[in-house]
Amino acid sequence: MNLESIREKIGYQPALLGVVALLASGALAMASTATHDAIAAAEAKDLRDSLSEVLPSGMADNDFLKDTINVDRDGQPVTIYRARQGSEMKAALFKVAGRGYAGEIQILMAVDMSGKTLGVRVLKHAETPGLGDKIEVKKDSWIKSFDGKSLGEPAPEKWAVKKDSGVFDQFAGATITPRGVVKAVKGGLEFFAAHKTEITG
């Protein structure tokens, strides 16, 4: 039986395709295994860098990536990263989300034990460049206006942009974006206050 007669058989092409698919799957699995640790390390570094941005320098001496607790919020688990000096807990770091003009805005915030914000940073958004993207710290210092704020300072009714009789600035032509961030940060403070005992353990 020569090669031409084998090729004419009905099962030849599906079998060949199966062998190629099997080899490709094996190669992908090997590549995934080989790069898994490097990817995980890079992701951990990115997360640690982001967490460190909202936490004042020297405030923690623990690895807060390994000191976590999950707390339920509206049926979804929220990972709380706990910053400590020795055995004393100094801050809780966690993500919140708000609704902007173009979609969800993901925010990382740090709160000290008295309920004051230590830092707030936007992690991800799809807001309009040149308008709504001023929520990024590299574009504008607006996001730093949350530093030191709490549910009592300003008063709850003042947790809004100035257009809504609040204390936070808005951007010309992009009020919806800062309004969403203000609401999300206030919600984060309320979440911390409601679950403080659970968060601190």
Mean pLDDT: 86
What separation lies between the terminal Cα atoms?
76 Å
Total strand count, please?
5
Strand content: 15-25%
One letter per element, helices H and strands E, the order comes to HHEEEEEH
Number of domains: 2
Low-pLDDT residue spans = none
Provide the structure class: alpha+beta
Rg over CA atoms, rounded to whole Å, is 25 Å
Shape descriptor reads globular
Largest sheet: 5 strands, antiparallel
Q: What strand order characterises the main sheet?
A: 1-2-3-4-5
Structure explained in plain terms:
The protein is of the alpha+beta class and 201 residues long. It has two domains: 3-52; 68-200, no CATH class. The chain has three helices and five strands, in the order ααβββββα. The protein has a five-stranded antiparallel sheet with strand order 1-2-3-4-5, sandwiched between helices. A hairpin with a 4-residue loop joins strand 4 (104-112) and strand 5 (117-124). The longest helix is centred in the first third of the chain and has 42 residues, at 12-53. The termini are far apart. The model has no long low-confidence stretch (mean pLDDT 86).
How is this fold's topology laid out?
Layout: H1 3-8, H2 12-53, E1 68-73, E2 76-85, E3 88-99, E4 104-112, E5 117-124, H3 176-200
Antiparallel strand pairs: 1-2, 2-3, 3-4, 4-5
Summarize the structure.
The chain is of the alpha+beta class and 201 residues long. It is 36% helix and 22% strand. The model has no long low-confidence stretch (mean pLDDT 86).
